[in-house]
């Protein structure tokens, strides 16, 4: 039998060489559940705006593990006691934190897997892998669920300054070309410490934290909440909703077996058992995109029209507004469209609709970013900052929008 070299390295365009710390991590990366992330886009349909944004959740998960290694090394150097078992658990927890994402995750969560959040599915995957790996993920799961006694470890995985955010901002900025999102993750990690079981940033790192929050705000407006990205994701959500509606009326839609399963069944947390998890693990971007390519030729006008919008990047018109859209204006657009399209008054909602976007770079009400002052005291970031911009970044900014077919511009 040929022995496999499990101490591999990945060449990453963001960090250079990423090393796999041990054989257990290698085996988790090699598992089909994790390899599936190669086929799940990190930024959904954002490539319709930024052609380079084709990176995957596989890239992101490895990047998170890499900067977690740096964070652990920094904390240990500063005298924070972290055992080998805890260190390994942190690497596993951050590596698997996004494993529950489905194809075009947020669109799926609002259409065909409606009542189950991706974090809950991540936990289901981790539990399934824990059985397969004979309990070696016990501590990682404890940390991920926030049940481990050392609370700062959860903050490294899920907080307002965690490894997840640090990687996706830097990575999404690189692949999209939105330079404003680039952050200095090395500097932020070097400034990390632990005080009273709380993850803190040393006072001299405050400007790096402010830059991080500004970058996050700008990335949301310029990339994640870019109006074309928003309308593309909403169109995809409506495609999947329409497909589910037709399927449940007995209409046969050509698609892969895993996608067909979720179109034919209403999935809740109770019904999301081991068998459903195995089917979910077979679902990726290719299932959805393959179905859309096929459905653009379907006889149902609503489904085919929406699919053509994605395939040909001929999307609905989206108009951004400072105030809630006028109901009379929307009703007028709907009436005009019913006269133009072979659709019912109920179906017009697939083409004419409104919504809102919220952007809050820092939430001072939730667990704050804590700053370690030179005298050893801990202070909330908002109180530490000598600039008004952090206070401004803590205020949620809401924008409204309405969408409708471009054909209505001529009416």
Number of helices: 19
Strand order of the largest sheet: 3-4-7-8
* Radius of gyration from the alpha-carbon trace, in angstroms: 23 Å
How would you state the average pLDDT, rounded? Answer: 93
What characteristic shape results from the CA principal axes? globular
Distance N to C terminus: 72 Å
Order of helices and strands: EEHHHHHHHHHHEEHHHHHHEHEEEHHE
Q: What is the total tally of β strands?
A: 9
Helix share, percent: 40-55%
Characterize the largest beta sheet: strand count, sense, and whether it forms a barrel: 4 strands, mixed
Q: Beta fraction of the residues?
A: 5-15%
Structural class: alpha+beta
Walk me through what this model shows:
This protein is of the alpha+beta class and 411 residues long. It is built from 19 helices and 9 strands. Strands 3-4-7-8 form a 4-stranded mixed β-sheet. A hairpin with a 2-residue loop joins strand 3 and strand 4. Helix 4 crosses helix 7 (138-144), helix 9 crosses helix 11 (206-224) and helix 12 runs antiparallel to helix 16. The longest helix has 21 residues, at 57-77. 37% of the residues are buried.
């Amino acid at each position: 039998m040929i022995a496999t070299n499990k101490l591999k390295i990945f060449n990453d365009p963001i960090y250079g060489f990423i090393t796999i710390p041990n054989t257990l991590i290698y085996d988790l990366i090699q598992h089909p559940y994790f390899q599936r992330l190669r086929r799940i886009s990190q930024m959904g349909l954002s490539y319709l705006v930024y052609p380079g944004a084709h990176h995957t959740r596989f890239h992101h998960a490895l990047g998170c593990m890499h900067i977690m290694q740096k964070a652990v090394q920094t904390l240990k150097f500063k005298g924070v006691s972290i055992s080998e078992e805890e260190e390994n658990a942190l690497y596993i927890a951050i590596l698997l934190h996004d494993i529950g994402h489905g194809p075009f995750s947020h669109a799926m969560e609002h259409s065909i897997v409606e009542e189950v959040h991706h974090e809950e599915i991540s936990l289901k995957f981790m539990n399934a892998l824990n059985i397969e790996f004979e309990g070696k993920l016990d501590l990682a799961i404890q940390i991920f669920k926030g049940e481990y006694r050392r609370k700062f470890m959860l903050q490294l995985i899920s907080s307002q300054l965690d490894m997840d955010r640090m990687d996706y901002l830097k990575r999404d900025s690189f692949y999209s070309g939105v330079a404003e999102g680039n952050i200095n993750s090395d500097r932020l990690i070097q400034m990390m410490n632990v005080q009273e079981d709380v993850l803190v940033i040393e006072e001299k790192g405050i400007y790096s934290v402010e830059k991080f929050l500004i970058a996050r705000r700008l990335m949301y407006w310029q990339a994640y909440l870019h109006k074309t990205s928003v309308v593309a994701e909403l169109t995809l959500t409506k495609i999947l909703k329409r497909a589910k509606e037709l399927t449940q009326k007995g209409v046969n839609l050509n698609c892969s077996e895993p996608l067909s399963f979720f179109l034919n069944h209403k999935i809740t947390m109770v019904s999301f058992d081991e068998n459903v998890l195995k089917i979910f693990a077979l679902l990726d971007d290719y299932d959805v995109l393959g179905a859309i390519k096929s459905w653009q030729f379907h006889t149902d006008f609503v489904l085919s029209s929406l699919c053509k919008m994605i395939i040909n990047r001929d999307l609905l018109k989206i108009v951004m507004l400072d105030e809630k859209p006028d109901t009379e204006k929307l009703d007028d657009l709907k009436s005009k469209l019913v006269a133009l399209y072979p659709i019912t008054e109920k179906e017009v909602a697939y083409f004419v609709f409104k919504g809102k976007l919220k952007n809050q770079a820092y939430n001072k009400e939730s667990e704050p970013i804590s700053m370690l002052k030179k005298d050893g005291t801990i202070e909330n970031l908002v109180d530490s900052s000598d600039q008004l911009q952090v206070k401004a970044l803590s205020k949620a900014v809401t924008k409204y929008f309405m969408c409708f077919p471009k054909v209505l511009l001529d009416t």
